Amino acid sequence: TMPKEPAVLRQNILDTTAAILACGIDPKKCILFRQSLVPEHAELAWILGCLTNVPRLLRLPQWKTKRASQNNEGTVGLLTYPVLQAADILLYKSTRVPVGEDQVLHLELAQDTAQHFNKKYGEFFPVPKAILSEL
């Protein structure tokens, strides 16, 4: 949600890809792709954003915390980031999502959004469940 220098962003993409491969992910057994090259993420985020009310997003603790750290000048991107996360999850019709405790409320937004969409337009998205990591 913060502007990045293009060269730094490109390097971060390469570094992240290298880290994923170094962890043992086998590209012969899974598909690796750059999410920003898939326009359906942004398209679904727009559709879901039209179904999400602003007061719900304003109540999310991550918004409150980051907005406070940015001198009350949080951006629209920061506010709507949880809707993009919901789109990322729902686009692939995910049924289980590994999350940390700090992301449970964002997953709940994805669950509520799936239920709202399904009620309005018919069963389409499964309602994803959290897989909480144990540290």
TrEMBL record:
The keyword Nucleotide-binding applies. The keyword rRNA-binding does not apply. One of its GO terms (cellular component) is mitochondrial matrix. Its EC number is 6.1.1.2. GO terms for molecular function: ATP binding; tryptophan-tRNA ligase activity. It is an enzyme of class 6 (ligase). Pfam families: tRNA-synt_1b. One of its GO terms (biological process) is mitochondrial tryptophanyl-tRNA aminoacylation. Keywords: Aminoacyl-tRNA synthetase, ATP-binding, Ligase, Nucleotide-binding, Protein biosynthesis. Belongs to the class-I aminoacyl-tRNA synthetase family. This is tryptophan--tRNA ligase. It comes from Atlantisia rogersi (Inaccessible Island rail). The gene is Wars2.
